[in-house]
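Practice problem: predict the structure.
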Amino acid sequence: MPDIPNPPLRRGNERIPPWRDGRIIGVLLQIVFVVLFVLSLSWIFTNIGNNLDALGEGQFSCKEGGSSYRCAFDFLSIDAQFPIGESVISYNPNTDSFWRAIGIGVLNTAKVAFYGIILTTILGTLTGIARLSSNWLMSNIAKWYIDLMRNTPLLLQLFFLYFVVFLVSLPSVNEVEPLLGLPIYVSQRGANYPSLVPMASFATWFAFIVLGIVQAQLLWVILGRREEQTGQTSNRALWAFLSFLVVVVIGWFIAGNNSNTEAALVSRASRIREFSDIPALVERRLAVSDVRDIEAALENGTLTKEAVDEAAVSVCAINESASEINLTSQLGAAHVPFTITRSDRPDQAIATYAEGGCEIFVADRATLAAERDLLEDSADQLIVPLPETPVRLSVPRLEGFNFVGGAKLTLEFSAILLGLVLYTGAFVAEIVRAGILSVSKGQTEAARALGLSETQRLRLIVLPQALRVIIPPLTSQYLNLTKNSSLAAAVLFPDLYRTINTIINQSGRAIQPIVIMALIYLSISLVISFFLNWYNSKIALVER
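Answer:
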C-alpha cells in the first residue's frame, strides 16, 4: 500500500499560521539563542582584548625583550621575594620562583582538602547515625549541632575559632605546660609534639619492613594450608606478627650498625674521638662523676645554672637537618647540656665553626669532608663518626621565645581545618541520615531476626545499601569543602587563594594568576568528582 503523505496541519479546513506553529517557533527560538550566544562571546572577547590593550605591553613582556601573548607567564619564573608561613616542601623566597610559591599554595590547599574530607566523613557519619539514635540526649545533641552549623556562616565560625577559641583561650609560649605530662605543648603559636625523623639508614630498614610483610603473608598462607590438611587450628595472626617483628628488629640493628653517614667535625685538641667522649668532656668541665648528676646538683645548689651553661657543649648544625636531630636526641638521652647554632647553608655553618662559634659541627660525612677542606687548619680537624638508628624521635623544646624540634600544627591550619570539618560535617550528617532512612525497614527487621547486633546491622546491612543514596550528594559536599578552603585567608593560612593574591600584589599582574587559580580549582574538583563517580559506579545496584 503506497505511503500517504502527512496532511498539512489545519484547524478545520485552514492551515495553521507559521507564527502559531510550535515546530517553526521552536526552530526560530534555537536560531535566536545561537545568535545571541555568538554575539555574547564576541562581546566578551572584544572586551577582554580592549582591557588587555589598556593594561599595556608590560603585562606580556618577554625575557629576551619585547612583548607577546606567548610570554604571558614568563614573569612567574622570577624570584618570589615574599615569605610563606607554612609549606609542605622547602621554600626560600630569595631563590624560589612564583611557580614554586603557587605549588606550595596548591599543596597547602590539597592538605586541607585531604584531611578535611577524611575527618568530615567520620564526623558526618557518626553524627548522622547519632541523629537516628533512640537515646534522647544523643539524638538531640546531634540535632543541635547540625542546626547550629548549618544556620551560621562559615566565615563567622572561622573568625570565632581563630580569634576567640585559639588566640584568647590558649596560653602564651612562656606560660605553656606539657599536656598530660607528655612532651606536647599547645599554645598561641600552635601545637608542638614529638615526631619521627628518618635517618640515612631508614631506606635499608624499610627494605626489611617490606621483607617482613612478605614473610608474614607467606607464613599466613602456609599455616592456612596446614590447617586445611590436618584440621588443627593455629594462631596464624600471632605467628605472622611475630615473624614480621623478628625481621623488623633484625633489620633495625643491621641498618643502624652498618651505616656511617652521620658524623661530627671537631678539633683534635678537644679530645673527642667518639660520642662517649662528649659526656666525659662536660664531666671534666663541671668536675662531676656523671652528667646524670647535673640536675640533682642544680637542685641542691652544688652547681649553678651559669656554670652549667658555660660548660655546655656548643653545636653548629644545618637548620632542620636529620644530623641535628640525630645528635641532639642522643645528647638529650645522655643528659648532656648543649646549645645549638643553626644555619641555613653548610657554608654558613662551617664559617661559624671556623670563627669559634661552636665546638662541634654536625652534618653528614660527605658535607663535613667537603667543608673541612676549605678550612686553613683542615689537618687539625677530625671527622668523628656518630651512632645512628634508622629513625630518631625529635622532641620539641623551648629555646628563647619559640619551640624547636618535633612537629608543629599551626593555629591557622587548625582553624581552617576544624572550621571546614565542623561546618561540612553537619551537611554530611543529614545526607547520611537520609541515606539510612532510604533503606526499607524490612532490611532492619530481617537483620534483627538473624540475631545481628545494632552495630552489625549498620555495618553489614544498612550502610552498604545506603551508600547508593549517600554518594551522589556527598560528592557535592566534598567539592564545597575544597572550594570553601579559599576562606583560609581569613585566618591567615597560606592556601592557594592567599598565595595567588600575594603574587598579584607583588607582580602587578592579575589575569594570569587568576586563570591559573581557576584551572587549579577546576582540576581538583574534577579529580574528586572522577573518583567518587567511579566509586559510585562500583557500588551501584546491578539489575538483571
